[in-house]
Design brief:
single chain; 609 residues; alpha/beta; 19 helices
């Protein structure tokens, strides 16, 4: 199954026929520029093109009244003056004689995509459409809100109280609100209102999310619902920022590794205040929020002396123009950096101790046969008695070769199998080799009976996180240990409230995932860890698996590192009180250094509004 793209040329017909500064940003070029960029990047050619169709009147009637549908149908026969008069009765909307046809195509295209995903014809996809609601990513609800505000099945909203919110804020909202609730809800399908007025440079949203941020958000959503994700284009009015952001999202849908996030990963204080408020309001309804520890809401959003919300958007004067110029310059610099980070030619490679034809690896996963030079392998192995045996030495040579290929950009991610007796020694060599061969910041997630190398320097270049320790402890800000939780809810809290916030705060350029002896993870748990850790390091993940693990574990890891969806974890079960308490205490120790762990505002701190 692949990624679908739904689009129809007729949707570019509607355009503004009179002068209206408020509406002129909604233009056909929003679609044509995106499509051109997808074609230039070779992304459209990799997607399965689905034919768009008009939604039927019965389908439109699921959310619109017959009178409203009839009103739009009647616009086909109106002249320009009549269309302008009718448009003036609505907020920031204009009508065109082709509006009714375009709107039916937009709705029908989204339905075509959903049908294809649910039928299993494709795994996920994007509908390039134009729709008549304002993107809720920045604006408050509007059309979507009106449809669902009285539906008890609808979920929650995390409002931003100010402009300028960036990558750290959006990722924090996903980790601490959206994903915990989503895993507990366990959806069969994820619909994304893909509005990009939250992207840097956009004149409407005035936010700071960079194009690669949308790839990360998309990748995080793909661990839900078996990867069945349907994205539908909404807002986005800076054409370059819009087109680049859509390309990033499509790359993630296609399973490509995503570029690392740029900028410091420190959420704004006002974002944390909003997250804190939402978690407190939603905790009575979701066990996943209860078990992470919910701090009381101490202060409301910023308000004026009269008690009304203070104005959030700056006036469109000199200050606004200066900020817009600065954002455009920042976007140009970001795009230059992204062009310097090409996608590796090999997405995933596997190095086995012995070839196994029975393993059902994806067809384009490379079975790596290469090995590091014998002299180099022996030099790295010399301090370790466990690596003296031929089998361990041979496996180490393959690990070193694969690691070098990842670091030099030839391979994005890999899996290597090692003898159980040499697991700790092999991991020690991999850490030291990675740091000496180009990795500036290396995150090591060690699961099972694996101790941190005693002489590993605590110099800020490596972060050691052990899952499976006897107790939760932070021996330093770069040496963290936590027991393996025994329930689904406890495991998810450990991953979403500790592992990923640490990883995004640290911003590694290489992640080592070591599944050592007695690691205790079920295959779906190991797969979820690997899938989620693709993001922080831009896809550069090396998984080390001891050969006593299940034979299929290497296959499951290869599939998720290759971009496929992780298997379902099974029914949600509450974390034990002991796991909840130890995780809350551990996060409290680490928050001063790793700001993505925070779920409440720190008055006067570096992340304040």
């Amino acid at each position: 199954m692949g990624t679908a793209l739904v689009y129809h040329e007729d949707m570019t017909a509607a355009r503004l026929l009179w002068d209206d500064p408020e509406c002129e940003i909604e233009c056909p070029e929003r679609l044509t520029t995106v499509l051109e960029r997808l074609q230039q990047r070779g992304l459209e050619q990799r997607c399965l093109r689905l034919a768009a169709r008009e939604a039927s009147e019965a389908e439109l009637g699921l959310v619109h009244s017959p009178e409203y549908v009839a009103l739009l149908q009647g616009t086909q026969a109106l002249g320009t003056g009549e269309l302008q008069t009718l448009s003036g009765q609505y907020d920031a909307v204009y009508f065109h004689p082709s509006t009714y046809h375009c709107a039916r195509l937009a709705a029908g295209a989204a339905l075509q995509l959903v049908d294809a995903v649910l039928a299993g014809a494709v795994r996920n996809g994007l509908a390039l459409v134009r729709i008549l609601i304002v993107d809720w990513d920045v604006h408050h609800g509007q059309g979507i809100q009106y449809i669902f505000e009285n539906d008890p099945r609808a979920s929650t909203d995390a409002p931003w109280p100010q402009v300028g919110m960036g990558n750290a804020d959006y990722v924090a909202a996903f980790l601490h609100v959206l994903l915990p609730v989503a895993f507990e809800f366990d959806p069969e399908l994820v619909l994304v209102s893909a509005g990009f007025d939250s992207a840097i440079g956009d004149p409407e949203g005035q936010m700071q999310a960079t194009p690669e941020c949308f790839a990360h958000l998309t990748q995080l959503l793909q661990v839900l619902a078996g990867g069945r994700v349907c994205a539908v284009l909404e807002g986005g009015y800076h054409l370059e920022s819009l087109s680049q952001s859509v390309c990033m999202m499509v790359q993630a849908l296609l399973g490509d590794p995503v570029p690392p996030l740029s900028g410091p990963m420190v959420p704004h204080g006002s974002a944390l205040e909003s997250i804190q408020s939402v978690r407190a309001a939603q905790a009575p309804h979701w066990m996943s929020l209860q078990q992470q520890g919910v701090a009381p809401v101490l202060s409301p959003s910023p308000r004026s002396p009269e008690g009304r919300p203070s104005p959030l958007l700056p006036p469109r004067g000199p200050e606004f123009k200066a900020a817009a110029t600065q954002n455009v310059a920042a976007l140009s610099s970001l795009l230059d950096q992204l062009r310097l980070s090409p996608t590796p030619p090999v997405r995933t490679a596997v190095a086995l101790t012995a070839p196994d034809a029975a393993l059902a690896l994806p067809s384009d996963v490379l079975c790596e046969e290469g090995s590091a030079p014998q002299e180099e392998t022996q030099a790295w192995a010399r301090p370790h008695e466990a690596l003296a045996q031929d089998r361990a030495l041979t496996a180490l040579g393959k690990v070193l070769y694969l690691l070098d290929r990842i670091l030099d950009g030839q391979v994005s991610s890999g899996i290597a199998v090692t003898p159980a007796s040499a697991a700790a020694a092999t991991l020690d060599v991999a850490i030291r080799c990675g740091l000496s061969h180009g990795a500036q910041r290396l995150l090591c997630l060690a699961v099972g009976q694996l101790d941190r190398p005693p002489d590993l320097m605590d110099d800020g270049r490596n972060l050691w996180l052990n899952i499976g320790g006897k107790e939760a402890a932070a021996l330093s800000m770069f040496h963290v240990s936590v027991p393996l939780p025994g329930t689904t809810g406890g495991f998810l809290s450990c991953v979403l409230a500790l592992v990923l916030p640490l990883a995004y705060s640290f911003q590694p350029d290489l992640v080592l995932v070591a599944l050592g002896p007695a690691h205790g993870l079920r295959d779906p748990q190991a797969a979820l860890l690997a899938a989620l850790l693709r993001g922080p390091a831009g896809g550069r993940v090396l998984a080390l698996v001891d050969e006593e693990s299940t034979p299929q574990l290497a296959v499951v890891l290869a599939r998720v590192l290759h971009g496929e969806a992780a298997p379902n974890l099974g029914p949600f079960s509450m974390a034990s009180p002991e796991d909840v308490q130890s995780l809350v205490q551990l996060r409290g120790q680490l928050e001063p250094r790793w700001k993505m762990l925070q779920v409440a505002s720190e008055t006067g701190g570096p992340g304040s509004g």
